[in-house]
Here is the input.
Amino acid sequence: MAGIPKYAAGVPRHELVKILCRGGSCPKGQSTYARLALREGGPIPGDSGRYAGYVAHCLRCGYRATDTYNWQGP
Ligand SMILES: [Zn+2]
Here is the structure.
């Protein structure tokens, strides 16, 4: 798992995603690892691609991200 930071190391790799966190306590504009979870209620309109129907919880600050188009696999 080269390149996976300590705060994300305990999360199964298939649940990891890199996001640009908009939470208050993460550095702005830096990508951060988050944990994927199925979105309650299913995909939102316009949601498409690999992460459609998911939300991601920032592993550093807990921010809940829904902007799936910005996400990247580890
Ligand atoms: Zn964050």
Summary: The longest strand covers residues 31-38. The radius of gyration is 12 Å. The chain has no helices and four strands.
